[in-house]
Amino acid sequence: MLIRRHGDIRSSEITPADVYAQRRAFLKAAAAAGVGAALSGPAAALVAPAGQRDAIAGVVETPHGRGLELTDYEFVTQYNNFYEFGTDKADPAENAHTLRTRPWNVVVDGECEAPGEIGIEDILTGFTQEERIYRLRCVEAWAMVVPWIGFPLGDLLRRFKPTSRANYVRFETLLDPEQMPGQRRAILDWPYREGLRMDEAMHPLTILATGLYGEVLPNQNGAPLRLVVPWKYGFKSIKSIVRISFVHGVPETTWWRMAPDEYGFYANVNPSVDHPRWSQARHRVLGEGLFSRKHETPMFNGYADQVAHLYKDMDLRKFY
Amino acid sequence: MDRPEHAFPWRRFVAKPLLFGAALIPFGLLVHGAAVGDLGANPLERVTHTTGDWGLRFLLLTLAMTPLRQLTAWSGWLTFRRMLGLFAFFYVSLHFLTWIWLDQELRWANMLADIAKRPFVTVGFVAWLLLLPLALTSTRAMMRRLGRHWKRLHRTVYAVAVLGVLHFLWLVKADLLEPLIYAAVLFVLLLVRWRPGLLKRPPLSTRALDAR
């Protein structure tokens, strides 16, 4: 296996001078317009594209995750849990080439006034694509830092005008054993399903991701559209979404059905509530050496100041 | 011994050293990977899984030697059994050590709590504990000293294999295929242990009768 060292930067990864100049100009304009308060301070710049896939145009910088050390592109894209393409961490990178991500439509239905369908091209052009650097904590006690490209889920949901009856949102992955060979065996109850409470779905940290490292999502990372909820365990961030439904009442989710005592609906990162088979107090950061120490897992994966209020009167031991 | 006294002792000077070298390959790859930093995104997981897998594989290989002798009527298999058994102990011990040192980071209270409350950890620990006396009594001198008790003691290895497979079955999240393959192999090995007749070739005379 080829491991790229940090100092080993290909020429394709270096931002061309004109692009760089455009970004500077954008930043100046933003600062002048008074919207750049969060962007000022140490010079921020978009993460350099990995040079592996199509770049996403018009990506806007955000202050999210500035200063976090990114996990190498190789690890982000070659160590994945995506059982639709095999249960080994290396399987998705090897097998996901069979997934066809164009054309791709997402059905939005359920308790809303304007149900309909939206194509991935309209999603890419119709919503401002932002860079969001987030920590991702897996329920298996490892973690990484990913520079996602995406936009707030709430922006998309509002277009379909949810009614007052809609208090949860349900998501569904593509079901197609031809394209997703892992679905030929009943490892999980396919298609993969996930859900969020309405206020979680509308929270500004919750995004639909279309890319990472400046480029469209690799198939193994859930192309062409996936959820990212950074304060919850990774399995909540459902991949390759084809359907989003507004529902009334808690939707059934895949891992909860599989083992309700191990995977709750909320699945908030919580160091004080163990998985029945292992502790959640600490985690490994991908890419660190064999003898490096584990890290203490922070409550809500370090996003407590932004999301703790959503759960203020709840017993998180009961609603894990 | 089924070889003439004057023949070259190839089993001792060729087959066993070769097996010894081959059995060290997974360990060598891990050491090399750790040295050059090429154990993938999650080195701890790689080491844990590799040592666990090979511990279980060597256990099953050890158990396969007696049936192989019955199947092939070649007693040579038994000369590899002790080495295979000791390699099982070697890899299971590395697996256990990885857990103690790198996974639990020497938090002794945590470890005791884990052993007490998490069944897959409990059975893994008990399996290692049961292997310990087998490794310690694997020498020829101990074999002689224990006499008939030696055989009875070493039958524990079947229990260890069952616990090892359980340990694997109870730790996977969803896909049971791999542990079930180990379980199936173990089931066959246990079956021929308690029903050795399944493997015995019928005596020549009976076969001759059948043929007629």
Structure description:
The complex is a heterodimer of chains A (320) and B (212). Chain A has 320 residues and is of the alpha+beta class. Chain A is 17% helix and 20% strand. Chain A has a single domain (11-311), classed as Sulfite Oxidase, Chain A, domain 2. Chain A has helices at 17-32, 73-78, 91-95, 120-126, 153-159, 198-201, 254-258, 304-307; strands spanning 105-110, 116-119, 130-137, 142-152, 168-173, 193-197, 207-212, 215-216, 226-228, 241-247, 282-285, 295-296. Chain B has eleven helices and no strands. Chain B is globular and about 55 Å long. The two termini of chain B are 35 Å apart. Chains A and B meet through helix 2 of A and helix 3 of B.
Q: What's this entry about, in short?
A:
The complex is a heterodimer of chains A (320) and B (212). Chain A is α+β, with helices and mostly antiparallel strands. Helices cover 17% and strands 20% of the residues of chain A.
What's the CATH class of chain A, please?
Alpha Beta
Q: What proportion strand of chain B?
A: under 5%
**Overall average residue pLDDT of chain A:** 90
CATH homologous superfamily heading of chain A: Oxidoreductase, molybdopterin-binding domain
Number of helices of chain B: 11
Largest interface: A-B, 30 and 23 residues
H/I helix tally of chain A: 8
Envelope shape of chain A: globular
SSE layout:
The complex is a heterodimer of chains A (320) and B (212).
Chain A: H1 17-32, H2 73-78, H3 91-95, E1 105-110, E2 116-119, H4 120-126, E3 130-137, E4 142-152, H5 153-159, E5 168-173, E6 193-197, H6 198-201, E7 207-212, E8 215-216, E9 226-228, E10 241-247, H7 254-258, E11 282-285, E12 295-296, H8 304-307
Parallel strand pairs in A: 1-10, 4-11
Antiparallel strand pairs in A: 1-2, 3-4, 4-7, 5-6, 5-10, 7-8, 7-9, 11-12
Chain B: H1 10-23, H2 25-36, H3 43-72, H4 78-103, H5 108-117, H6 119-136, H7 140-146, H8 148-154, H9 156-171, H10 177-194, H11 204-211
